[in-house]
Design a protein that fits this description.
Length: about 120
C-alpha cells in the first residue's frame, strides 16, 4: 500500500518561512518523480513543485518560483519543501504526491500565512 504522510505545517507571519516534510512508503521511491501540490480554500489543486527521481532536476510554478525549494532524500524516502518569504496567498493545505495533479497524495498539512 502506497502511503504518503506530510508534516511541518503551521501558522506563520507574512515573510516568514516553513519547512514541510513527507515520508513515503509502499513504493519504489527512488525511481519516481515526486510533486508538491496545494489546495487553497475554495479552490482546486494547484501544482507547485516537481523533482525528478535523483533530485537533480526541479521545476516550480511561477507563483512560488524563487521562494520555495523542493528536495529529497532517497535513503530515507523523504521529500521536503522549504518555503521562504511566505505570503497570505500561500495559505493552503499542502500535499506531497506521486503525480502532478495530486490524484495520489497524502492527507496534507495546513499552512496558514497571516499576521
Amino acid at each position: 500500500e502506497v502511503k504518503l504522510v506530510e508534516s511541518g505545517g503551521g501558522l506563520v507571519q507574512p515573510g516568514g518561512s516553513l519547512s514541510l516534510s513527507c515520508v513515503a512508503s509502499g513504493l519504489s521511491y527512488s525511481w519516481i518523480w515526486m510533486f508538491w501540490v496545494r489546495r487553497a480554500p475554495g479552490k482546486g489543486f494547484e501544482w507547485i513543485a516537481s523533482i525528478n527521481s535523483n533530485g537533480e532536476s526541479t521545476d516550480y510554478a511561477a507563483s512560488v518560483q524563487g521562494r520555495f525549494t523542493v528536495s529529497r532524500d532517497n535513503t530515507e524516502n523523504m521529500l521536503y519543501l522549504q518555503m521562504d518569504n511566505l505570503r497570505s496567498e500561500d495559505t493552503a493545505v499542502y500535499y506531497c504526491a506521486t503525480d502532478r495533479e495530486g490524484k495520489y497524495r497524502g492527507q496534507g498539512t495546513q499552512v496558514t500565512v497571516s499576521s
